[in-house]
Amino acid sequence: MLELLRLHGWNATSFQVLEPGFCYWFDGDDACVAYVDTGGAWVAAGAPIADVERLEPVARGFVEAAQNAGRRVCFFAVEKRFVQRADLETLGIGQQPVWDSDQWNEVLRSSRSLREQLRRARAKGVEVRELSGTEAVDPSSPARRSVQLLIQRWSRSRSIAPMGFLVALHPFSFAAERRYFVAEQGGQVFGFLAVAPVYGRGGWFFEDFLRDPAAPNGTIELLVHHAMQSAA
Question: Of 59, 107, 115, 137, which has the highest C-beta tally within 10 A?
Answer without folding.
Answer: 59
